[in-house]
């Protein structure tokens, strides 16, 4: 952790020991017309993250492993922890008065605020437990969230509030349940990481102002799909593996299969993560609203880039809640190479 002051913190402040709440409060203090609602919404999301983290840590003991028997809107088996995480996030924010509508990767339609509760000005889109096929084998998983301001002005939010392009996000983040639990977020100015101290039950600032290296040495892609790749993808990956010492190749390959884990590594170490479209799945696998768009906001705020290969992820105007998009994300120069070679 650095103790460097930022433009929004108090002059000369030592940020050692700053909680997530303090960090956001300091930022809001210098934001004109800030109402504090954003700070409270973040506290609710962080609370959900702490509850999910505690359950993930005890999954084998708490009878939380395995599937529920249901299949979600994506056609995937719903894990018990998926369902628990989904419920936890909804319960943590639905009564707070800050959110007017939610959408979850696990739920077909937008999730309204229960009758009788205030309808807030934000929209919360989330993937409650990303990488859930890794739950039963104790590999890192995570929660991804995206926050928009509602565009409807009455008390009746609609799906249009959810279908906004990524550049309009007011904040995005993820919570990774790994060797430690970390919350990483951006609200546009910088990307900041907080580590959960389980003995205190608080997230503390541990990674201030994360910058993604402009070039890395790792590529991350599911090579098991190679038979379905287009020639551009195959040639690009071959090129990444071809020795060229002067230009830092061959790259190493790392692939966890949880976007949060693969993206977190890419953010800290640089390189490129890709889930391309292929002959079988034209738009790949990842969902625009719950995965690609929030990670793209974080990548760009850290100095990186995110694209479908043809279009900046943050410029895509969604047409469906569960829309999928090809994704290349990571270090600026590595993503630029991908664009050049795959298109
Ligand atoms: P699950 O939640 O079904 O495990 O999917 C995870 C995910 O959406 C994303 O987190 C991974 O990057 C990607 O799918 C992995 O997909 P493959 O298993 O096809 O490589």
Structural class of the secondary structure composition?
alpha+beta
Q: Percent of residues in beta strands?
A: 15-25%
Question: What is the first-to-last residue Cα distance?
Answer: 39 Å
For the sheet with most strands, the description reads:
8 strands, mixed
Mean residue pLDDT: 92
Topology:
Elements: H1 20-29, H2 37-57, E1 67-71, E2 77-79, H3 80-93, E3 99-104, E4 111-112, E5 122-130, E6 141-149, E7 171-177, E8 181-186, E9 191-197, E10 202-207, E11 218-220, H4 231-241, E12 252-253, H5 259-269, E13 272-275, H6 288-301, E14 305-307, E15 327-330, H7 332-342
Parallel strand pairs: 3-5, 11-12, 11-13
Antiparallel strand pairs: 1-2, 3-4, 5-6, 6-7, 7-8, 8-9, 9-10, 13-15, 14-15
Helix pairs in contact: 1-2, 2-3, 4-7
The structure holds 1,6-di-O-phosphono-alpha-D-fructofuranose.
In words, what does this structure look like?
- The chain is α+β, with helices and mostly antiparallel strands.
- Helix content is 27%, strand content 22%.
- The chain has helices spanning 20-29, 37-57, 80-93, 231-241, 259-269, 288-301, 332-342, and strands at 67-71, 77-79, 99-104, 111-112, 122-130, 141-149, 171-177, 181-186, 191-197, 202-207, 218-220, 252-253, 272-275, 305-307, 327-330.
- The strands form three sheets. The chain has an eight-stranded mixed β-sheet, sandwiched between helices.
- The longest helix is centred in the N-terminal third of the chain and has 21 residues, at 37-57.
- Residues 1-9 have low confidence and may be disordered.
- The structure holds 1,6-di-O-phosphono-alpha-D-fructofuranose (AFP).
- 1,6-di-O-phosphono-alpha-D-fructofuranose is lined by residues 76, 130-133, 222, 257-259, 262, 275, 285-286.
């Amino acid at each position: 952790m650095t103790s460097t002051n930022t433009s929004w913190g108090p002059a000369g402040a030592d940020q050692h020991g700053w909680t997530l709440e303090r960090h956001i409060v300091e930022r809001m203090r210098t934001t004109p017309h800030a109402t504090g609602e954003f700070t409270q919404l973040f506290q609710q999301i962080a609370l959900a993250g702490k509850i999910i983290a505690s359950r993930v840590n005890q999954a084998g003991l708490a009878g939380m492993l395995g599937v529920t028997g249901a299949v979600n809107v994506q056609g995937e088996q719903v894990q018990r922890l998926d369902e628990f995480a989904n419920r936890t996030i909804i319960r943590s924010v639905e009564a707070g008065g800050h959110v007017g509508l939610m959408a979850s990767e696990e739920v077909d339609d937008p999730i309204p605020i229960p009758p009788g509760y205030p309808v807030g000005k934000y929209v919360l889109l989330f993937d409650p437990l990303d990488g859930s096929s890794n739950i039963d084998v104790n590999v890192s998983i995570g929660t991804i969230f995206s926050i928009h301001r509602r565009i409807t002005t009455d008390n009746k939010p609609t799906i249009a509030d959810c279908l906004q392009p990524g550049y309009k996000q007011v904040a995005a983040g993820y919570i990774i349940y790994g060797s430690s639990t970390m919350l990483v977020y951006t609200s546009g100015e910088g990307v900041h990481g907080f580590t959960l101290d389980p003995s205190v039950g608080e997230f503390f600032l541990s990674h201030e102002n994360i910058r993604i290296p402009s070039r890395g040495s790792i590529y991350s892609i599911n090579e098991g799909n190679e038979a379905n790749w287009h020639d551009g993808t195959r040639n690009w990956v071959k090129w990444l593996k071809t020795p060229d010492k002067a230009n830092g190749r061959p790259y190493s390959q790392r692939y966890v299969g949880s976007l949060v884990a693969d993206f977190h590594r890419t953010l800290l170490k640089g390189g490129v993560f890709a889930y391309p479209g292929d002959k079988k799945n034209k738009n790949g696998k990842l969902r625009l609203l719950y995965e690609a768009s929030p990670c793209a906001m974080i990548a760009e705020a850290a100095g990186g880039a995110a694209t479908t290969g043809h279009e900046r992820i943050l410029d895509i105007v969604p047409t469906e809640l569960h829309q999928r998009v090809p994704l290349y994300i990571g270090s600026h120069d590595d993503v630029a190479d991908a664009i050049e070679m795959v298109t």
